[in-house]
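In this supplementary section we document a worked example of the pipeline. Step one takes a protein sequence of length 229 as its only input; no multiple sequence alignment statistics are reported here. Step two produces a three-dimensional model, which step three serialises into structure tokens for compact storage. The input and output of this example are shown verbatim.
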Amino acid sequence: MSKLVLPNPLQVGQALLDLLREPSTWSHGWTTLSEILLGFGIALVVGVGLGVLLAKLPTLENLLNPFIVATQVTPKTPLVPLLIVWFGFGVSSKVVIAAIFGFFPVFRNTLLGIKSVPGSFKDVMSVFKANRWQRFFLMEMRYAAPYIFAGTEVGVVMAVIGAIVGEFLAGDHGWGYLTVAMLNNFQIPQLFAVIILLTALGFAMHIVVAVLRRFMVRWHESAAIGSAE
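The serialised model returned by step three reads:
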């Protein structure tokens, strides 16, 4: 196969070094990172909040569940052009797309975690005459924390994908846009180099959440299993 189509590792390595020396590369990277952090921050707050709310209000959950399921199973990528039309071609649309991609793993795991609190735990809290807030923070949220972090690990990676897809289709800045620019200019080694940067970014986001999980829920067996691995 031609080197123009499939460059060798030395060419890709050199292209990666050249990109890392360019200040514009870091500017593009900061744009992508900002979109991911803002989008996933929204997904985390709304996902946890709505998950807790519906776990506490089963009637509301039953009422909204058909709409939630329909929204979840709808392919997200075809909706991206519509979101860009609604929110514009700037950073806002990328943040919204990242938030939508990252929302459902957080929401579903929060809902499952809160609803999975054993009845025996509730009985113990009643014996100690714990009030509503003590039950919520000391029992329910503590028990649900491993579930929430499991959803967060998946959700943050989905938020990365969402932001990059948005930049693919309607970006003028960011590493996703840079990928399209390299492809249009047929700079294949540079294209591979940007893909490496995007992969590293996804790994970094996942590792940050995994480290937080081990620190925040170190008492749970999932943290011990992750540490052993």
